[in-house]
């Protein structure tokens, strides 16, 4: 090998990075990356309230990082751990919550209920074209006095004596009256649940004011043992 060739070879070898230098560079990159991750974790840990600490909103408790939420049901709101799912700042059970059925924000509509994380109609019901839960056969035998208005309809449906059609039971303040030849009849079974039918209207039964929606202006009328809002109706 002549002199010029030897010089070129030594320069080429000198320009190549050594294995030690390459490994050192890679190690430095990895270390820097890990330090960044650790830094971000430290930042999250520093700003997250822990269980039992006072909070203003669920965001203070870092629900994404640890599934905690801000419990505002007590006088002093504190972070608590949610054993189920945090949705909309609250701890909910998505297997039975009609507003978060199967996941946050999935609302059950049309009279359906959340069962095992899915919106389902009641036994014997199906969804019609509008998505509402209805009985397969909406007609029912005309109920005579003393007949069970629920016998031929789906759960929570009643046979309306005025139309001979199955309809949803009447909620509080709904109608429980129907037309009779020469008069008006009423049936508490046309009401949902264990309500009382008074003058053709469904009312919540009560023993005292604690059974009524006092915040909404209701009181327990001792005379009829129902919750009313009009004091004159209790006379």
Fold topology:
Elements: H1 3-15, H2 19-47, H3 63-66, E1 68-71, E2 78-81, E3 85-87, E4 90-92, E5 113-115, E6 118-120, E7 126-127, E8 133-134, E9 157-160, E10 165-168, E11 177-180, E12 183-186, E13 195-198, E14 201-204, E15 219-221, E16 226-228
Antiparallel strand pairs: 1-2, 3-4, 5-6, 7-8, 9-10, 11-12, 13-14, 15-16
Features:
235 residues, 16 strands, two-stranded antiparallel sheet, alpha+beta, two-stranded antiparallel ribbon
Radius of gyration: 35 Å
Q: Write the H/E string, N to C.
A: HHHEEEEEEEEEEEEEEEE
How many β-strand stretches? Answer: 16
Helix content: 10-25%
Anisotropy-based shape: flat
In the predicted model, the low-confidence regions spanning at least 5 consecutive residues are: 30-43
Structural class: alpha+beta
Strand coverage percent: 15-25%
Strand order of the largest sheet: 1-2
Largest sheet: 2 strands, antiparallel
Averaging pLDDT over every residue, what do you get? Answer: 82
Question: What is the number of helical segments per DSSP (H or I, 4+ residues)?
Answer: 3
Q: How far apart are the first and last residues' alpha carbons, in Å?
A: 125 Å
């Amino acid at each position: 090998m002549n002199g010029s060739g030897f010089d070129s070879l030594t320069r080429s070898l000198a320009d190549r990075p050594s294995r030690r230098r390459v490994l050192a560079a890679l190690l430095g990159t990895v270390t820097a990356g890990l330090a960044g991750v650790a830094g971000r974790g430290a930042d999250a840990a520093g700003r997250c309230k822990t269980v039992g600490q006072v909070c203003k909103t669920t965001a203070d408790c870092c629900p994404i990082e640890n599934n905690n939420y801000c419990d505002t049901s007590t006088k002093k709101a504190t972070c608590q751990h949610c054993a189920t799912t945090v949705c909309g700042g609250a701890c909910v059970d998505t297997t039975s919550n009609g507003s978060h059925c199967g996941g946050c924000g999935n609302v059950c509509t049309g009279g359906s209920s959340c069962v095992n994380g899915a919106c389902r109609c009641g036994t014997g019901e199906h969804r019609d074209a509008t998505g509402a839960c209805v009985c397969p056969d909406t007609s029912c035998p005309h109920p005579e006095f003393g007949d069970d208005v629920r016998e031929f309809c789906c759960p929570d449906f009643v046979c309306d004596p005025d139309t001979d059609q199955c309809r949803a039971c009447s909620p509080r303040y709904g109608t429980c009256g129907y037309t009779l030849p020469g008069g008006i009849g009423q049936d508490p079974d046309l009401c949902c649940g264990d309500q009382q039918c008074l003058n053709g209207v469904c009312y919540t039964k009560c023993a005292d004011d604690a059974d009524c929606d006092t915040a909404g202006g209701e009181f327990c009328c001792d005379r009829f043992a129902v919750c009313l809002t009009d004091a004159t109706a209790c006379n």
